Each structure stands twice: as C-alpha cells, then as structure tokens.
Write a sequence for this structure.
C-alpha cells in the first residue's frame, strides 16, 4: 500500500480547482475508511457542495493506495454514469493509476493488477461483478 496524504489533503492535489472540503470532513472520513471496512453509510449533501468531486478524488486515492481495489460507482442514469466514468478515468490517469491496455473503456476499466472502476445506473446491472467498494451517488434526479 502506497503512503499518501490524507484524503482531505489529496483533494486539492487531485483537482486543483478545489480546496480541501472541510465542510465535508465527516463524509471524507467515511470515504477514507470505506475500502477497509464493511460499513454502510447514507449521506445527504446539498447540490453544488463538491460531493461528486470528493467521491471521484476518493476513488483515485483508493486506487493509488491499493491498486487491486474494484470500485463500482452507481448513479441515476446510464448517461450520467458515462459522464462521471470519463471524469473518474481521466482523474485516475492524472494521479498515477493507468487503465491496462485492452481494458480501457469509459464506464468499465481495470488496471494491470485487476483493480479498477465500473460506472453504471441501477438499470445496468453488473451481476457477478467483483466489488470491494460500492458508491451510490445521486440515486435519483429531479424533484422528489
């Protein structure tokens, strides 16, 4: 496991447009522990408070620390999963986690040691997919 700064310190290095999201410190703490725990959490954060960016940077942080992790990122639609999947893949590349040749698609990629990310909506089941961490970000869109 590579020794990296805390996730709060990693975030501005990961995406220079953002400062450390101290307003999300509790959420960041949950994200830091996620790969090593069997915990479940539900977090509600108002829109435009950098929750998704924080999750994307957390995924890159996890994979830098342990490149064998298999992450599933779910969201409300297949189109949104593609958008976020591209962002996560590009961010991982910029922070030192490269998809392996032949396993480099926007919504489902893996690295040389088998870790990686699958992005999907609830309608796009990945039955049988191995997963170490599941993130369900924005399960619905629009008014409730």
């Amino acid at each position: 496991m590579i020794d990296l700064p805390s996730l709060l310190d990693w975030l501005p290095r990961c995406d220079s447009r953002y400062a450390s999201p101290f307003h999300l410190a509790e959420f960041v703490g949950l994200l830091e522990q996620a790969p090593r725990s069997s915990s479940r959490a539900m977090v509600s954060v108002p829109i435009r408070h950098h929750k998704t960016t924080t999750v994307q940077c957390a995924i890159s942080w996890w994979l830098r620390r342990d490149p064998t992790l298999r992450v599933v990122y779910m969201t409300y639609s297949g189109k949104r999963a593609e958008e976020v999947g591209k962002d996560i893949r590009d961010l991982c590349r910029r922070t030192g986690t490269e998809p392996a040749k032949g396993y480099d698609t926007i919504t489902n990629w893996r690295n040389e040691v088998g870790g990686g990310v699958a992005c999907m909506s609830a309608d796009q089941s990945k039955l049988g997919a191995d997963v170490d961490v599941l993130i369900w970000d924005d399960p619905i869109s629009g008014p409730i």
Observations:
- Strands lie at 70-75, 108-110, 116-121, 133-136.
- Helices lie at 7-14, 25-33, 51-65, 78-94.
- The chain has a mean pLDDT of 87.
